[in-house]
Amino acid sequence: MSTAHASPPIRFDLPGVLRRHWPLLPLAATVLLLCAPLPAGDATASGKVTPADAASLLLVLCCAVQALRGETRRLSALGAFLLGLPAAGLAVATVTAADPYAALPGFVRYLQVFVLVPAAVVLLLRDAREFRLAGGCFVALALVQGAVGVVQFATHTGASYQGADIRAVGTFGPGDVMGMATVVAYGLIIATAAALTPTLTHRVRRAATVSALALLVPLGLSFSRGAWIATVGAGLVVMLMAGVRRALKVLVALGAAAVVLVGGLGFGSEMISERLSSITQVSSAPDQSVTDRYTMWAAAESMWRERPAAGVGLKGFPANRDSHSSLGLSSGSDTAGAGQAFIRQPLLSPHNMYLLVLSEQGLIGLTALAGGWAALLVAGVRRVLAPDPAARRIRDCGLVAVGLFVWQLTDFLYADIGGPSTVLTGVIIGLAAWWALPSPTADGAVDRAAAA
Asked: At what angle do helices 422-436 and 51-68 cross, to 10 degrees?
């Protein structure tokens, strides 16, 4: 009879993992709760607190508790200044608004998305391992929403597009047609960054590659020109930072996948081609949606010229829109399908985040917001390209952070906040700031996570 001792079984200590990473639970919930469908009409209803919003508030509360216990990251004075800077512009725009009481909900929403949630993410994420867990939640959300979107296209149960209910919108509904495209693009950027990082395991890189290729399908079927442009721009930035040779390999793989899916299988090829060609026709033969957008951009600029310093006040664009718009503006956009009856959606924003901030918060607010974002982006890119050994060992985090931030800043050129996925904007800014603003405590944790 053999006397050899069998190896002890490997046990997964779930209580221990939860005990070490419990502050991440509200962050994971903030992302993953967007998988759940919302009742019709809740996607864009003003003042609605979604489950993801509630989770983000819990995230901020957990951060406050951890900060009181001294168990959060340390930030430099510059880091604290950049994260808190938007609050100054928001306060000025609220106080100087024609109706400060009406501006107060906007102040709370902006404070949540651009100050509190980003700061909580920066302070609570202790190392690269937790950063990667947060990125994994984004990919999981993208895959779920993307799968729902593909089914909607295949079964004609999506949002209405050119007279057919085929537009992939996931669980966000026709009132938030950018919601699914946004979260799918987030997942695609994260998966691409992971696939391009040689320090990750082969299994992780292979899974990331498969996920990125799979997410191309629902992104195409979203028929969202803005999401396509932002994804191409952010993807190119990620690939160039990862290395030209790797970038060429990925471009070849993505091109082959696009040919097979669109050309070979005919997956919405005609409509996707038509939508792509319309990008170059925005000045020569624009459709009504483009005309409305140009008209609202002009209205936002007119509001800013009227009050250049502090703007017309938070939530002031809808009230001042008609007095600054031309007769070319339509009464709204038509939405239907995906389980929702026909609704005419009012046009309440210029669909450009920078112009929205400029019109409602003036130069003070735009400088506070966009100035901080520019500083974070420059710092993030410099850290990715720096020869620092500790940073290079977790370069995938840098590629993810910069890629997501570039996507968001590009998307803001033709979109603004609104809808359930808005809360993820705060998480994206937090991830970018976590990478751009390293602290001594985080660097030590980074070394341990990289060696694990």
From this structure: 30
Greater confidence, 331 or 180? Answer: 180
CA–CA separation, 356 and 374 (whole Å): 18
**pTM of the predicted model, to two decimals?**
0.88
Q: Measure the CA–CA gap between 291 and 329, rounded to whole angstroms.
A: 7
Domain ranges, ordered by start, for the chain: 51-287+341-451
- CA 408 – CA 421 distance, rounded (Å): 12
139 SS3 class: helix
Q: 337 in helix, strand or coil?
A: strand
CA distance 380 to 438: 10
Q: Please state, in angstroms and rounded to a whole number, the distance separating the CA atoms of residues 278 and 316.
A: 32
Give 418's pLDDT tier (boundaries 50, 70, 90): confident
Q: Within a 10 A sphere around the Cβ of 301, how many other Cβ atoms?
A: 15
Range list of H helices, 325-415: 353-385, 389-393, 395-411
> Among candidates 424, 429, 414, 423, which has minimal Cα distance to 108?
423
- The yes-or-no verdict on residue 46 having pLDDT over 90 is no
Exposure of 295 in the CB half-sphere (CA atoms within 13 A): 21
Tell me how far apart the alpha carbons of residues 407 and 404 are, in angstroms, rounded to a whole number.
Answer: 5
Structure-derived torsion over alpha carbons of residues 362, 418, 213, 139, reported in degrees to the nearest 10: 100
Q: Which of 12-21, 75-84, 151-160, 419-428 has the lowest mean pLDDT?
A: 12-21
pLDDT at 445: 46
Binning the chain into helix, strand and coil, the percentages to the nearest 5 are: 70, 5, 25
**Whole-number Å distance between alpha carbons of 132 and 123:** 15
For residue 263, the tally of other CB atoms under 10 A from its CB is 11
Sequence-distant (6+) residues with CB within 8 A of 202 are none
Name the helix (H) or strand (E) containing 52: helix 51-68
pLDDT digits (tens, 9 = 90+) for 344-383: 666 778 889 999 999 999 999 999 999 999 999 999 999 9
The gap between the terminal CA atoms of the chain, to the nearest Å, is 39
- pLDDT digits 0-9 by tens, 17-44: 556 667 789 999 999 999 988 765 554 4
Evaluate whether 192 touches 402 at the Cβ level (below 8 Å).
no
Backbone angles phi, psi at 159, to 5 degrees: -75, 160
Q: Where are the alpha helices (DSSP H) in 243-316?
A: 244-258, 269-278, 288-306
